[in-house]
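User: I'm preparing a small set of examples for a lab meeting where we compare how different chains pack in three dimensions. I only have the primary sequence for this one, and I'd like the structure in token form so I can line it up with the others. Please keep the answer compact; I'll paste it straight into my notes.
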Amino acid sequence: MSTNRPVVITILAVLQFFFSGFGLILSISLVALAPVRDLIVKTSLEILKNSPNAAEIASPELVQGILLGIGVVGIIFSLLGLLLGYGLLKLYKWAWFCTLVLQVLQILGSLQGLLGAITVPALAAIPQQLFQLLTSGVIIYCLFLPTVRQAFGFSSQSR
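Assistant: Understood. Below is the structure token output for the 159-residue chain.
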């Protein structure tokens, strides 16, 4: 069976599968593996004890509950990411649109992260935020390539 899917779409879908699969493994390990969660709780409490405001309210139960919540949300988003990768491979318009929306949100989050890293002494976060910003920009650029738009059934004249 021949497909008219440009290589760039296949690359985007494979990356989506990779990152979503990796996120799924990490999220499941956070929820299901108590030793992993306990190590993160211990480390988080050590970091939080240096902050007078956080040290007063931080408890192992609270941190563990937050981590479980993050793990469950991570599982949900990872499963949605796998669905999105499948949609890209099958050239579904909803997958193109959802990818665009998610990348715009990623850019906004990266800009917020850059602002936070500049205003708070967290300069180590700047390269990560710049990488995410650049990656999202490249993905959006790829989504608007004429061959990609045409593969998803968009007219080459409409933008």
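A couple of notes for your slides: The chain has two domains: 1-91, 92-151. The two ends are 30 Å apart (CA to CA).

User: Perfect, thanks.
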